[in-house]
Write a structure and sequence with these properties.
- The protein has eight helices and no strands.
- It has helices spanning 4-12, 25-40, 42-55, 65-78, 80-91, 96-104, 106-123, 125-129.
- Helix 2 packs across helix 7 (106-123).
- The N and C termini lie far apart (40 Å).
Length: 131
């Protein structure tokens, strides 16, 4: 019988990005753990963001494309409750070993996680607009 960790690793798939002997532990964690989770959760992140934008009186949808990109970045950086919700969606897919590694350097890994998520949402802004 597969363990929870084995199921999670199978579900997430391959490492995204290069990991080699010169990679820092943060870079390795980013490419082995964070990127595959963000890719797996992409559609959910888009829907969560759309729901957030709607609850914020639809302001996002009337902005220019440039301001939409700034809005995404600003919301994720400034709205701590929303940010923590997004973080939880990622951390919930960590294996136990990954979580132990994460808590050793959570501050820097959170920055990487949120920067990757911001870029992912910006890349999906057209999909968000068309919903």
């Amino acid at each position: 019988m597969e363990t929870r960790d084995e199921k999670l690793l199978n579900l997430r798939g391959e490492t995204l990005g290069n990991v080699n002997a010169q990679s820092s532990s943060e870079e390795a964690f980013q490419n082995i753990t964070l990127r595959p989770i963000l890719k797996l959760q992409n559609d959910l992140f888009v829907q969560v963001f759309i729901n957030y934008a709607v609850k914020q009186k639809n302001v996002f949808f009337s902005l220019t494309p440039e301001k939409k990109l700034a809005y995404i970045e600003n919301v994720i950086q400034k709205d701590i409750k929303f940010r923590n919700s997004l973080k939880g969606m990622v951390i919930g897919l960590f294996t136990v070993e990954e979580y132990i590694e994460y808590i050793k350097n959570s501050s820097n890994l959170n920055k990487r996680m949120m920067n990757l998520l911001i870029e992912r949402l910006k890349d999906n802004v057209l999909m968000i607009i068309n919903q």
